[in-house]
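Reopening: structure tokens for the S-adenosylmethionine complex, inputs below.
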Amino acid sequence: MTQTVQELSPTRIFETGFAFWTSKVLLTAVELGVFSALSTKKMTAQQLGAALKLHPRGIYDFFDTLVSIHFLNREGDGPGALYSNTEETAHFLDQHSPGYVGGILEMSSQRLFKFWHDLPEALRTGKPQNEIKHSRKSMFEELYDDLPRLEQFMGAMTGISRGNFQALAEKFDFSHYKTLCDVGGATGILSILVGRRFSHLQCQSFDLPQVQPIAAKHIQKEGLASRIKAVSGDFFKDQLPKADVITMGMILHDWNLENKKHLIRAAYEALPKGGALVAVENIIDDARRENTFGLLMSLNMLIEFGDAFDFTFADYKSWCAQAGFKEFELIHLAGPCSAAVAYK
Ligand SMILES: C[S@@+](CC[C@H](N)C(=O)[O-])C[C@H]1O[C@@H](n2cnc3c(N)ncnc32)[C@H](O)[C@@H]1O
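Re-run output (same inputs, fresh job):
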């Protein structure tokens, strides 16, 4: 039903238009370590500000904004008021917590926020707007040239993917299969979570040589080195290791159509008959109307890579069918993320 001009409200327009204020407050809180400094403690604004080395001018505005958007609790009012983590921030945003997902927000604060400033240019040119804008290197070469940046990226991937991989371990039945290869496995987190739940499974986490030692360290720390191997290779130069299931977590969306199809064909070749290729992605709904995060992620791929893009399940099925895959299944994981499965 059409609304009259009097009934229309600009509230939603302003909420979205100013969402970057709210977003930057949360990202900054993560970047500065507000939730980790508080951890299980209660602190006054002055104590917390001092612990974070903040200028007094902003501390009440900053912490009270976080209270008003429910990312901090506050007992009392005024200078004696005590700030503490909410249940959510204690679990997900305190670095001491095993559930920490802040890595992706740290990277958003330090890298993506400023690169998104150039969205208009990205839309006009179709070109990336990140570190590679002024260099000739590929995105991963540029990112991995600098160890702190490589580590930040690995932390970011763990932050965004942990919940999805946990859901995959619960929702996809790996009991029919003996071997798994996680292609572009980063820290090995998918193999670790799936391997913990399915103790019969032999896994390989496959990634570039710079990343292999990071995965090996994490796998060792989890005590899973006898069943999960960190292997190094380049998925555009080397064959993929043979396995009953090949998983690709946020891999296909990093590449243009030609490279996506190359990776799907490589997976097909590495799988036995009946084997499964599982792509864990923010799969966009076929009508491209509902999964806002998937659509935004695709814009983020424009910012990061230029010609890379996110896709629908219909797209995935058609590319996989061209490679020879026979059956398909879409399993919703967590939030905007799903597992798109193609069976050989
Ligand atoms: C977007 S991250 C995804 C990480 C992880 N699968 C996840 O979902 O959290 C892409 C991964 O692909 C790896 N990668 C990029 N190019 C590669 C290549 N040519 N060969 C092997 N791995 C590659 C990167 O090192 C990185 O770990």
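Residues 147-171 form the longest helix (25 residues). The mean pLDDT is 96. Marking as resolved unless the reporter disagrees.
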